């Protein structure tokens, strides 16, 4: 994807981030998340993203993948919130891929890998290691992406609440010898 650029997200990107997230959820989680939930994904997420991006917290990075003038995906990287409270976030705490979404029209074209490469590099430089991610059980799309990147299940599990539905999730950890590109 020659004309793709990865850059830090700004509040002006929020609407396109929501569009990428909504399309990605509807394509990747059909059959895992209730169809009514997918159909009515909250558009107020745009306002939430604007507020989040305006805060500029330390040890948090939100990136967008841009193709031409359009945001086609984004990813959020931070410390592992299950391991430390915000006031305790510091080098030595595990890092976390909090979210990564690419519009399905751009899947398998390098945007997800480019976002992940930049985010993992940033987490590593910040001393947030190992790098972890939570994914919905049964999400084949997510599972294939993370496996190809070098993540593997580490045995941790939890339940996420999404619009009143309980969704089982498993945690993956990036292998130390995972490819950087």
UniProtKB/TrEMBL annotation:
The yes or no answer to whether the keyword Transmembrane is present is no
According to the entry, every stretch annotated as the N-acetyltransferase domain falls at 4-179
Q: Which domain of life is it from?
A: Bacteria
**Per the record's keyword annotation, is NADP included, yes or no?**
no
| Keywords noted in UniProt | Acyltransferase, Transferase
Q: What is this protein called?
A: GNAT family N-acetyltransferase
Name its species.
Glycomyces endophyticus
